[in-house]
Amino acid sequence: MSCCNVSPDNEYELIIIGGGSAAFAAAIRANDQEVKTLMVNGRLPLGGTCVNVGCVPSKFLIRAAESIHKAAHSSFNGITVNKPQINFKQIIQQKRELVADMQQRKYADLLAGLPYVKVMDGFAEFVGDRTIEVEGEQYEGLKVIIATGASTYIPSIEGLEGVPYLTNISLFELEELPQSLVILGAGYIALEIAQAYNRFGTKVTILQRSATVLSRQSQDVSNEIRKHLSDEGITILTKATVNKVWKDGDMIKVKYNQNGLNDTLTATHLLVATGTKANTEGLNLDKVDVKTDGKGHIVVDNYLRTSHPDIFAVGDVTSFPAYVYTAAYEGGIALQNAFYNPKQRVDFTALPWVVFTDPQVAGVGMDEKEAAAKGIPYQATTLSLSEVPRSIAALDTRGFIKLIRNTETDLLIGARIVAPEGSELTMEISLAIKYKIPVHELVNMFHPYLTLSEGIKLAALSFTMDVKKISCCAS
Fold it and tell me: Does the CA dihedral 205-210-215-220 come out positive or negative?
């Protein structure tokens, strides 16, 4: 089978390049099918972005900051609050312990139970058809799955390379809380970090080139979350273009232009959160004619096949939705499609997602713009949390629930939610979309009174009636 004088000991049925959730999902499925597999992991430790520098540490810090915020704020009469004392170094140390524990238990320890999978550290590059080289040694596979993930995109800004800017990787390792932080970008990573560090006590300023935060979302969603972040004291500057960055003593200066006027920000720290880029550098994809798109993502079809018939790509290295759970989903499908029939297509029609701000921003399926682009006759309804008994009783009516339905079929096609713990509502909507449950059936389902999920029932009711004119529990 060898094309490049590969030793028989280095011949595998499957080679996986990467060591994150997508790679592990493929490896576990391959082991179940007794497929001789080599996993080559470079960059981050096993587990990839999520457990090491993404989901796990960020959500830990978000919850820690939330506990500080809640201890210092109350809407209830008769409750005296005080901001707690913070030992930030201890918080970071506990974060490291959590990450190390989960990395060990959820990834490294699993390898003992995968006898058909060999894992090696190093950076792989293609040197021939289905053949890679790692540390001077060549390996060949019948099939190859690329799961190298993505990393922070660093924009071209004058002076940026000369200042000690941060990314999520380095920020989460700082043991001393930044006094002030300028964040470039206003996507979900930027907003989560901005709110968490603001609640810890950092003065936070966001610089965003586009007109809105979360610029891929509809205006109502963007405006709502911006309002609540601003109310907490975060400065958000949109339509702002960064021209130059430089070091001034212990401080960092950021010159920007907003609405034709130049101004300069000064902060102790600078965070780059301007999106991500696919980790394809060094793979030598041209050697195997694997094509990438204009943004550097590996081009795949709905079966996760690249332009090479025996090479697949999964996870953040592609342009499909970049979440740890979609990456794992794709890893399993790629293994199935590489070796077995019937082939499986990826389907993100009912995909739930969440931004872990407070209130959270969450969604499933299409919004109005996407429905219109597909020519779907739609109706959208938006229910303020001021109409949800649970939110009223909690004295926290920040946000709304928006449902979008197909007017011809009465089937939900999407939802957008801004609400405290709003992500907990997404699975009901996701299941309704996937299994084609009509809106009128959601209305007829029992939803416990004084739960946030009752908001789904009320929002569904609001397609056809004014919920302000019904009594509690009435339908």
Answer: positive
Residues 436 and 364 in one domain: yes
What number of other Cβ atoms are within 10 A of residue 298's Cβ? 26
Residues 208 and 258 in one domain: yes
Distance between CA 352 and CA 57 in Å, rounded?
A: 21
For the chain, which residues score pLDDT lower than 70?
A: 1-4, 473-475
Residue 262's Cβ-side half-sphere holds a number of Cα atoms within 13 Å equal to: 5
pTM comes to 0.95
Q: Please state, in angstroms and rounded to a whole number, the distance separating the CA atoms of residues 413 and 361.
A: 18
Last residue of a domain, one of 274, 295, 324: 274
Nearest to 183 by CA among 224, 237, 128, 231: 237
Co-location of 188 and 258 in the same domain: yes
pLDDT tens string 214-223: 999 999 999 9
Q: Sort strands 352-355 and 203-207 into parallel, antiparallel or unpaired.
A: unpaired
Same domain, 251 and 284: no
Tokens of 315: 């996870």
Instruction: Tell whether 2 is covered by a domain.
Output: no
Write out the H or E segment, with its range, that includes residue 246. strand 240-248
Question: Could you report the per-residue pLDDT of 356-381, keeping only the tens digit for each?
Answer: 999 999 999 999 999 999 999 999 99
Task: State both tokens at 432.
Answer: 């309704």
Per residue in 100-155, pLDDT tens? 999 999 999 999 999 999 999 999 999 999 999 999 999 999 999 999 999 999 99
